[in-house]
Amino acid sequence: MKRKTLFILFFSILTNNCLFAQSDTIINDSIMFLNSVFVNGKTIPHSSIKEVVVFPELKFKNRYRRRRYRKLIRDLKKVYPYAILAKDKFDKMESEFSKLKTEKEKKKYVKSVEKKLKDEFGDKLKHLTITQGRLLLKLIDREIGSTSYVLLKELRGSFSAVFWQTIAKLFGSDLKQKYDPHGSDYLIERIVLQIENGLI
Question: 99 by DSSP, 3-state: which?
Answer without folding.
Answer: coil
